[in-house]
Amino acid sequence: MNSAFRQDYDVERTIEQGDTVVAIWSANGEHVGQFMHVAPTGARFRLKGITAYALRDGRITAHWEQFDVLAILMALGIVPPLGG
Predict the structure, then answer these.
(1) Which residue of 19, 22, 45, 67 lies most exposed, with the fewest beta carbons within 10 A?
(2) Quick check: 23 and 50 in contact, CB under 8 A?
(3) How far is the C-alpha of 48 from the C-alpha of 38, rounded, in Å?
(4) 38: which DSSP letter?
(5) Which residues make beta-bridge pairs with 64?
(6) What is residue 35's DSSP assignment?
(7) Mean pLDDT of 66-70
(8) How far apart are CA 37 and CA 79, in angstroms?
(9) What is the DSSP string of 16-82?
């Protein structure tokens, strides 16, 4: 993902509970490298996601992430726009 897309993130909200921190974010992306056998297109997109971090002694020990992959696939033309 990091070599295929130039990314700029905005953290919209963080939630902390015990040793877990959750970040709700949005990002602007630009397709600048090969992704799923698709050469760079320069396509731009915006997506939303959520990442949860497990912490121990001030360090991240694990993380889980979910984001709008469909937005990327539609921006690159891999999946046609919905409803069209």
Answers:
(1) 19
(2) yes
(3) 22
(4) B
(5) 52
(6) B
(7) 94
(8) 14
(9) EETTEEEEEEEEEEEE-S-BTTB-----EEEEEEEEEEEEETTEEEEEEEEE-HHHHHHHTTSSPPT
